[in-house]
Write a structure and sequence with these properties.
single chain, 410 residues, alpha+beta, Potassium Channel Kv1.1, Chain A, eight-stranded mixed beta sheet, five-stranded antiparallel beta sheet, 16 strands, TRAF-like, BPM_C, BTB/POZ and MATH domain-containing protein 3, BPM1-6
Length: 410
């Protein structure tokens, strides 16, 4: 009798990888002494920050979270501030030693194994943190408080699991150098067939390259009403240095820096350049440049720039940038300074309708804070750890959503 074995063409394998997507947020509390006396259970909330596809926020309770502690401790919690179900995460809270003696107070899950694995936050408003984070009397005489200011760093690691199949052999490829080659043509003026007069400056370029990148240039040079024989165009709506920056993007597909455009002695800031460049990108239908400008302006938002950027976003139809500006400006911690800025007066004059949207956003921010406040009262949504007053290595207790108390050693 012949034994037949199944034929195996090839061996395959796969692996499941669980890892964390990490992100950090720095929360500064100025005027700590004025925050005292708010009452137990009342908090100061950080701006929301995004890690692993979820929004998070830090809650600081100057008089503690629990009334029974009689304001002897400050409490610190991290909350899930966006919609989510059973979000698994690790956390690290650091109270910064502002004397820079290397004595930061750190409570971290990242450098030790957790008996029951990462914490699970069940829904929006779920919180993890420390009810007795620090004895208040000790905090107020420590180097953690300087000039009536506290600084906390928070790191969140959202657990993600992915599946990897077999990898094929690959040959590494060098990065594309097309942009460098095209820029050489621009810099050396090789084969240029069009001159732009912008103010007192002239810029040479190539019609075909411009037409390939911009629908406006394509229509101007090769459209039904275009003139292929034209060799000089006067530009009136764009500053010379902005037109140069736009040409550099067209040829290299990257956002130039200020020094590259204007030289090292320029007093123009990167934010101002990008604000003007966004308007030029909208004028010439350069969608990718417009998105790049939106992204950079979003990173540069502060109380001095947000009003001007918001006006630009409204005028040039940038909904994502507009939403970010409204969210920042409507934050109660920022609104007063924003309204005192020069850009806000320009916003009032150029886009008066945006003020009503700012008011609506302010109301929704306030409503969101109330919602989180109501959710946090549920015992099933809070993880809390009572630390010893000196923050030392003594035993601490934590509560989980099932009401089970677990005693841990740190």
């Amino acid at each position: 009798m012949v034994n037949f074995k199944p034929r195996v063409d090839s061996d395959t394998c796969s692996r499941s990888i669980s890892e964390t997507v990490n992100g950090s947020h720095r929360f500064m509390i100025k005027g700590y002494s004025l925050a005292k006396g708010m009452g137990a259970g009342r908090y100061i909330m950080s701006d929301t920050f995004t890690v692993g596809g979820y929004d998070w926020a830090i809650y600081f309770y100057p008089d503690g979270k629990n009334p029974e502690d009689s304001s002897m401790y400050v409490s610190v919690f991290i909350a899930l501030a966006s919609e989510g179900t059973d979000v698994r995460a690790l956390f690290e809270l650091t109270l910064v030693d502002q004397a820079k003696n290397g004595k930061d107070k750190v409570h971290s899950h990242f450098d030790r194994a957790l008996e029951s694995g990462p914490y699970t936050l069940k829904y929006r408003g779920s919180m993890w943190g420390y009810k007795r984070f620090f004895r208040r009397a000790a905090l107020e005489t420590s180097d953690y408080l300087k000039n009536d200011c506290l600084v906390m760093n928070c790191t969140v690691g959202v657990v993600r699991t992915r599946l990897e199949g077999p990898k094929q052999f690959t040959i590494p490829l060098p990065p594309s150098d097309m942009g460098r080659g095209l820029k050489d043509l621009l810099d050396l003026e090789v084969g240029c067939d069009i001159v732009f007069q912008v103010g007192d400056e002239n810029f040479k370029a190539h019609k075909l390259i411009l037409a390939a990148r911009s629908p406006v240039f394509r229509a101007q040079f090769f459209g039904l009403v275009g003139d292929t024989s034209v060799d000089k165009v006067e530009v009136k709506d764009v500053e010379p240095f902005i037109f140069k920056a736009m040409l550099l993007f067209i040829y290299t597909d990257r956002l130039p820096d200020v020094c590259e455009v204007m030289g090292s002695s320029s007093m123009c800031t990167f934010t101002v350049m990008v604000q003007h460049l966004l308007a030029a990108a909208d004028l010439y239908n350069l969608d990718r440049l417009k998105f790049l400008c939106e992204s950079k302006l979003c990173e540069e938002i502060n109380t001095d720039t947000v009003a001007t950027t918001l006006a630009l976003a409204e005028q040039h139809h940038c909904p994502q940038l507009k939403a970010m500006c409204l969210k920042f400006a409507a934050n109660p911690a920022n609104l007063g300074a924003v309204m005192q800025s020069e850009g806000f007066r320009h916003l009032e004059e150029s886009c008066p309708s945006i003020l009503s949207e700012l008011l609506k956003t302010f109301a929704s921010v306030d409503e969101n804070s109330i919602l989180l406040s109501s959710r946090k009262r549920s015992a099933s949504s809070v993880y809390a750890v009572d630390l010893p007053a000196d923050g030392g290595g003594a035993a601490a207790e934590s509560a989980n959503p099932n009401g089970r108390r677990v005693r841990r050693r740190y």
